[in-house]
Amino acid sequence: MSKTTKILVAGVGGQGVVFLTNLIVKSAMIADIPVATSEIHGLAQRGGSVTAGITLGENTYGFLEKGGIDLLIGLEPLEAQRCASYLNKKSSVVISNSRIFPYSVNSGHSPYPDIEKFVHFLEENITKVIYITETPADIKTILRNLYVLGRTVNETEFPIQNEFIEKAIVELAREGFEEKSLAAYNLGLAKNQTLKTIHG
Domains plus CATH for the chain? Predict the structure, then answer.
């Protein structure tokens, strides 16, 4: 793989940002793709904002500069919006509408942002937006990150082939969750799922 791809994963502690990051890194290693990742930033276990950067390809490094990423995977829409400054006109974004209200919203001190307005802004300024408005009811909350990854692989020019991702899922999934994890990922891969795709 000669092309460098920079990925930013964003979400809230408990949504599986750390697991998803480790999974992408493991998949790259199995595929023999050079990979580097930044430190995980945020409160991964306390419901706070969590982000991680991944670089795939030649001359890899974990640090991601503002305006320099190719793909943003947002497991929570507000957290995706917080990362907008990392995008450029050629970027792709995948956003799950799994909203987790921060304390300021729950306490009534501030409103939750208008995500549809944010999606429209992205439509006007970047290459592709995939806005996942619904997750199949039979997917457990803990496995939604894998469903989002499946959509990402299906709908973007993801740099790692599916076979390597599936191998990594089997290796990293908790004991007894291997089949359910693969099922959630493969549901995301399914082309007949309903989603909103916007091409800029």
Answer: 5-199 (3.40.920.10)
